Hints:
Strand content: 15-25%
Largest sheet: 6 strands, mixed
Number of strands: 10
Amino acid sequence: MFVEELRQYFKRNKSDYKSENYFKAYPGQHTKCIKGKTGYSFINSQNECYMSFLFEENEEDFTDIYKCSSFDTYEKEIENEWGGIFFYDDDNVNYLPTKKNYSRRKWTFTEALNKNDKYILWNGTVANKNSLPLPQNLSARMIYYESCRGLEAHSVFCFALDRYFDHKSKDDKASLYLLNDLYATDEHRRNAYAITSVLMALTRAIDTLYINIKDKDSVLGKLLLEYKQQNPEKVNLLTN
């Protein structure tokens, strides 16, 4: 959905060449909670910024793209910012995922879990989730973090929870969280917004909670290790 809207924007932008609605890309970087991340701002002749993007990348390819509200360009000063591309929550717009626009990544271990003979896997991460049968009491349910509200289970596994924390901290809404707190920094607001989402997942377990962290030096990784040190009798740390 986002990529399609972005494609339409660039198509319109080409037709507006030399007008005040023509925005040229200028390189720059994020200046606050994730300093050093690079991207581009689209700025017109009036020094108005339509939108800024940051890019996540590895050695092979770009892995993510998202809007940025705290961005400085290297060669162009931004005097005013437009709203850019904006979406309401999926529940509030007429949007249905299809093979064309549904691009959430698939988990590496899904196929292996489907082949097990010890339990029934109910995969709630598929695009046509509404067509699935209701999960049974003994089913192992696999869902996205955003879908865990209201659910409970005897044992819960939270995979790559630190990456989910980082993802939520980069959300546009994160910078607007706790705006009534005059002493809160942008980093504090973003982390508070992210931890609120993480707590939803952490409180789904009735008996046992397993937390998988990809980077022990991440914000959430350091926080959980600190909790382990303060409460050694409550946490078992497993490393590979």
